[in-house]
Write a structure and sequence with these properties.
There is one protein chain. The protein has 10 helices and 7 strands. The longest helix has 40 residues. Helices cover 61% and strands 20% of the residues. The model has no long low-confidence stretch (mean pLDDT 81). A hairpin with a 4-residue loop joins strand 5 and strand 6. The radius of gyration is 27 Å and the shape is elongated. The protein is an alpha+beta fold. The chain folds into 2 domains: 247 residues, no CATH class; 89 residues, no CATH class.
Length: 362
């Protein structure tokens, strides 16, 4: 009998979670579809393109919202079994509040691990495809930045033509082994610049150990200069912000290729933030499920439903803003970055521990 009740609990909890995910997916699909249609309205593509891009973008969004999705699902499921007296039946057959809480919370934790290891690599690949496809249709293609196996590539318009910049890799706030090509408005090459290192902290790039080739009477003349300055619309902050999208990196990428990503020029702070944010997912799912159980198991009165739902929503909003505030403090070095990521988990753990002791007495 206990195995039947256990299966009932788990099956119906996951069913409720799936229904909530499908509802949010549909809402996300509708809302994001309008944004994609707006993007493609002046581009000759079929309706299938924005629909396809929206479909592959929403799963990543759902993954980020999963702690709050599972909280809503847990609240809904717990209120449902409480209102139809199934909770009372479970208690009659030996399922205490703490046992029910553990079954649901551990299931959420295992679900979090499954998402990190199996689902996250898929969603990150989908986001990569989404961004790559949209970049092909970007309206402003005069200014492009890309980073691949051949290094960093930049294209930008200048006053009398175009500029293409390549660099082997970024290093701190510098570009290493940089090459600059200047073209006139007829796409004729009129200047080449080679430099060992370029400081890109500001829009005025300072190049060191420069070899400059410029055309004089149709012939390239070589000139060696210690320092040379060029003005660009890009700087270190702008370039790094273009690649600081954790959605394109999977948990496995961060674990297996961490050192490789550092050598490729990715910001260490950004990688640490992404890695630890992902690591908190199973714990947050456990704690949000536990929080929903604590709120709903406190009473069996149906009249309390509205108050419980309202309290749950307030708690969700508070946790969301506390999480954002904590990370903001970490990014500004007010507190250690790793601590800022785990602080909401630690604070919620303390609250849940107290709550579990209380529901265990009932």
């Amino acid at each position: 009998m206990k195995s039947i009740l256990f299966n009932y609990l788990l099956k119906n909890f996951l069913k409720t979670l799936l229904i909530v995910i499908l509802i949010i997916y549909c809402f996300g699909l509708i809302l994001n579809l309008f944004e994609e249609i707006e993007f493609f309205k002046n581009i000759d593509v079929s309706i299938f393109t924005p629909l396809m891009l929206t479909s592959i973008f929403i799963p990543s969004m759902i993954t980020k919202l999963l702690p709050f999705i599972i909280f809503i699902s847990s609240m809904w499921f717990m209120l449902k079994i409480r209102n139809n007296k199934d909770l009372l039946t479970l208690k009659v057959y030996g399922f205490s509040n703490i046992k029910i809480f553990l079954i649901l919370a551990v299931a959420s934790f295992l679900l979090g691990l499954f998402i990190l290891i199996i689902v996250n690599p898929i969603t990150s690949s989908m986001v990569k495809y989404y961004e790559k496809t949209k970049s092909q249709y970007a309206r402003d293609i005069d200014h492009l930045v890309t980073f691949n196996n051949n290094g960093l590539w930049i294209k930008e318009n200048i006053e009398n033509g175009e500029r293409i910049i390549t660099a082997v890799k970024p290093e701190d706030k510098n570009l290493i082994d940089i090459t600059v090509f200047h073209f006139d408005k007829n796409f004729n090459l009129y200047e080449k610049i080679f430099s060992k290192k370029a400081n890109i902290n500001s829009n005025n790039w300072l190049l060191e150990e420069v070899v400059l080739f410029e055309t004089i009477d149709g012939v390239f003349k070589r000139k060696q200069i210690d320092k040379y300055e060029i003005k660009s619309i890009y700087n270190y902050d702008i370039i790094t912000s273009l690649f600081n999208n954790s959605d394109t990196m999977s948990f496995l990428d961060l674990i297996l290729d961490y050192k490789k990503l550092i050598k490729s020029g990715y910001n260490k702070q950004f990688l640490n933030q992404s890695l630890h944010s992902m690591l908190t997912l199973p714990f947050l799912l456990f704690l949000m499920t536990a929080l929903a159980a604590i709120i709903t198991m406190g009473t069996l009165k149906r009249s309390e439903n509205f108050k419980l739902i309202l309290f749950g929503l307030i708690m969700s909003v508070m946790i969301y803003y506390f999480k954002d505030l904590s990370i903001a403090l970490g990014k500004t070095d007010r507190i250690p970055l790793i601590l800022s990521i785990w602080a909401p988990v630690l604070a919620l753990s303390f609250f849940v521990f107290i709550g579990v002791l209380q529901i265990n007495e009932k």
